[in-house]
Design a protein that fits this description.
Keywords: Ion transport, NAD, Potassium, Potassium transport, Transport. It is globular and about 65 Å long. The strands form four sheets. A six-stranded parallel β-sheet has the order 3-2-1-4-5-6, sandwiched between helices. A six-stranded parallel β-sheet has the order 14-13-12-15-16-17, with helices on both faces. A five-stranded antiparallel β-sheet has the order 7-8-11-9-10. A hairpin with a 2-residue loop joins strand 20 and strand 21. It has four domains: 120 residues, Rossmann fold (3-Layer(aba) Sandwich), CATH 3.40.50; 128 residues, Rossmann fold (3-Layer(aba) Sandwich); 83 residues, Alpha-Beta Plaits; 94 residues, Regulator of K+ conductance, C-terminal domain (Alpha-Beta Plaits, 2-Layer Sandwich). 31% of the residues lie in helices and 25% in strands. By secondary structure, it is an alpha/beta fold.
Length: 447
């Protein structure tokens, strides 16, 4: 696939790196020559120095023959303008990053599509929605829903009280049954395992499980976890993510938002309805105690510093907060943050990549997520009539080694994947896969 990326910031660079490894032809446009030169020594991509809104630069980048144009500059007006120009110059599909929720309203999205923008992405809003979702299942590290929640993927850490510790998957199924859930992956230290029957659970494993909503409490019990109600939430950082998270939560939770900048606090207070805005430092122990940290159920840190977010969450956990959420934009810090006990992590680069990557697949992918704690990805793909995946049962299918089927949505009903299940045309199938297996899986869903 020929892909042009406008903007060599953090998101654009991450996308270029990821997509080039998938054997796509990548052209990167940015006005910063030194940055492009440095990236040229690190990534297998081509680049053009110039403005993404320059018709000449766009022509030089070959947008007339590109399959996908991705505009991910920090300035949304540049992204919108460059995507419109790219479409007029011949780009088959365009995606633009925006920073304003009004563009995502159905009426406005339709208008922008008419003038050349096929899809919009607002990573900060997606991050806020991910944070809100993480509070639904308080005992999990990660939660992702498929087909309006008919199937759920939970990431749960195993400690010493988990009943499944040291059991193989076969023994676990014999003892507890497995018709309502499926273990699709185990993150152990720095490696992700797609488990088979003889693989066992160990202390400290992060286990990814696909299940039906009604069975979630049972899954938590098997992992030695109990759910608890969240009422009081503290958010540190008046960033776009922080403000959007507060606006989504304040309808159902008691929300306090802490921001260091006094003038920004005034602006935030005008935007929010019932959240309490506090001017202060979220790392200030005295302030946290004064604001009732001992009564806080969830602590969310989304400042512009990954280090501050990690340290703030560690402090909150030390003070007794059960649920912590940190924005960690430095990918090198993610494993560290997970290993020291930060509950949920969000990363806008991975969120943006998850949204965009599905447009590079030649099948109908409705939902795709790069998992924060693992190098794996989970996606929901629709089986086409006559595709290879529909010809045999899963047990008889030569399914790639580093991938597995978690579940199937058929006519609105959820089915946990077992060997005797045969995929039918129109089924929505939840797949868990390591990067090495994704292409092989996609081929099974093509005619």
């Amino acid at each position: 696939m020929n892909i042009v990326i406008a903007g060599a910031g953090e998101v654009g660079t991450h996308l270029a790196n990821m997509l080039s490894k998938q054997e796509h032809n990548i052209m990167l446009i940015d006005s910063d020559e030194e940055k492009l030169e440095a990236l040229g020594n690190q990534l297998d991509v081509m680049s053009i120095v110039g403005s993404c809104t320059s018709i000449g630069a766009l022509k030089d980048a070959g947008v007339h023959k590109c399959d996908l144009f991705i505009a991910v500059n920090h300035q949304e007006d540049q992204n919108i303008n460059s995507a419109i120009l790219a479409k007029k110059l011949g780009a088959k599909q365009t995606i633009a990053r925006v920073n304003n929720s009004e563009y995502l309203e159905d009426e406005n999205k339709e208008y922008l599509k008419m003038i050349g923008i096929d899809s919009l992405i607002y990573p900060e809003r997606l991050a806020a929605e991910e944070i809100v979702a993480s509070l639904k299942q308080s005992g999990s590290r990660q939660l992702h829903e498929f087909s309006d929640g008919r199937l759920q993927l939970l990431g749960i850490k195993l400690w010493e009280n988990a009943p499944v510790l040291n059991l193989t998957l076969i023994k676990m199924a014999e003892r507890y049954g497995a018709q309502h859930f499926r273990v699709v992956a185990i993150k152990r230290a720095d490696h992700t395992i797609i488990p088979r029957g003889n693989d066992s659970f160990r202390y400290g494993d992060l286990v990814f499980i696909v299940t039906k909503p009604f069975y979630v409490p049972n899954v938590f019990a098997l992992c030695g976890k109990s759910q608890y109600e969240i009422k009081n939430v503290v958010i540190v950082g008046g960033s776009r993510i922080g403000i959007k998270t507060a606006s989504l939560l304040e309808k159902n939770y008691n929300v306090k938002i802490i921001e260091k900048d006094r003038e920004k606090c005034i602006l935030i207070a005008d935007k929010l309805k019932s959240s309490l805005v506090i001017n202060g430092d979220g790392r200030d122990l005295a302030l946290l105690r004064e604001e009732g940290i001992k009564n806080t159920d969830a602590f969310i840190s989304v400042t512009h510093s990954s280090e501050t977010n990690i340290l703030s969450c560690l402090l909150a956990k030390k003070l007794g907060v059960k649920k912590s959420v940190a924005e960690v934009e430095n990918i090198d810090y993610i494993d560290l943050a997970e290993n020291i006990g930060i509950g949920t992590l969000v990363n806008t680069k991975l969120i943006a990549a998850s949204h965009i990557y599905r447009y590079t697949m030649n099948v109908d992918v409705k939902h795709l997520k790069f998992l924060t704690f693992s190098e794996a990805e989970v996606f929901e793909v629709t089986a086409e009539l006559g595709s290879k995946i529909t010809r045999k049962t899963l047990a008889d299918m030569n399914f790639p080694e580093n991938a597995t089927v978690g579940g199937v949505i058929r006519n609105g009903d959820a089915i946990i994947a077992k060997g005797d299940v045969q995929i039918e045309a129109g089924d929505k199938v939840v797949i868990f896969a390591l990067p090495s297996a994704v292409k092989k899986v996609i081929k099974l869903f093509q005619k």
